[in-house]
Amino acid sequence: MTLVTRAGGVSRSPGVRARDHSSDPGRRARRLGPAGALVLALFALAAGPAAGASPQGGVETFDVYRPGVYSMQATWTWCTAASVQIMRNIVSDGADHRSASQAQFFAFMRASNRYQQHDHRGVDPQGFLAGLRRFVDPGYALVASATFESAVRSAVTRLRVTGKPVALIVAAGRHAWVLTGFTATADPARTTAFQVVSVRIVGPLYGRQSINGYDPPPDTTISYAALREFLLPYRFRFAATPWTGSFVTFQPMPLPLPRGAGRPAL
């Protein structure tokens, strides 16, 4: 079952590979090289190809990252605020790196939290969703997936169909990443018969910390298998939540969900 909400020195793990963009400053979403690793189908989406992707079959690599969009989180607790800033830069073709913007995003999301415990200094999924909908795009939805496979599959499909980044809750609820690209054996916008090989992620801790995979350089490629070490079931130590035990992602949702794909989590 997948719950969907439409409201309100670098140390790398095996399978993690950084990318060098210095020779290609104008890179946009497009196809690149080869792939393989089996993922179960979640649901089919009927849609035409997004701009920048080849309409032909075969190996599909898609990436919306571009130089100039990355922002390091201004404090240790502002990973969600920096993720909003990065995603806003990608979607709006911006280059805002001001800590004042992160402070604005963080304050809004904190005020929107479902759980307002004094000891909780961060942003919970409800607050994060509110920030994405307010500052990035109103079409974002919180997707709480029962399995790692369904979380990754739905995330790359929505990324491919919309051309917009996906936010991931990693480290069992303690950190946020931005999913900017992937490599698969076929185009997820055209078929459910694809295998995810790797994903490309942006972690806002980079520049402040790079240890044990948190966080590598922007637009680093992580293998499907290595992503399992980071995208973990959500935990919240202050209360039981609608998302506890689920793999939490925030996906752009321009199309109606197929019948049976999920139910509101809030």
Q: Would you give the CATH topology?
A: Cathepsin B, Chain A
Number of structurally distinct domains? 1
Helix content: 10-25%
How many angstroms does the end-to-end distance come to? 15 Å
Highest CATH level, the class: Alpha Beta
The unreliable regions are 1-14, 18-57, 260-266
Order of helices and strands: EEEHHHEHEEEEHE
Q: Which term fits the overall shape? A: globular
Q: Architecture, according to CATH?
A: Alpha-Beta Complex
Number of strands: 9
Mean of residue pLDDT values: 80
What share of residues are in beta strands? 15-25%
Instruction: Report the radius of gyration as a whole number of Å.
Output: 17 Å
Structural class: alpha+beta
Major sheet details: 9 strands, antiparallel
Number of helices: 5
Describe the secondary-structure layout.
Layout: E1 2-5, E2 16-17, E3 60-63, H1 79-92, H2 99-112, H3 125-135, E4 140-145, H4 148-162, E5 166-170, E6 175-184, E7 196-202, E8 220-223, H5 224-227, E9 247-252
Antiparallel strand pairs: 1-4, 2-8, 3-6, 4-9, 5-6, 5-9, 6-7, 7-8
Written overview of the protein:
With 266 residues, the chain is an alpha+beta fold. The chain has one domain: Cathepsin B, Chain A (Alpha-Beta Complex). The two termini are 15 Å apart. Strands 1, 2, 3, 4, 5, 6, 7, 8 and 9 form a 9-stranded antiparallel beta sheet that branches. The N terminus and C terminus are likely disordered. Helix 1 crosses helix 2. The protein has 5 helices and 9 strands.
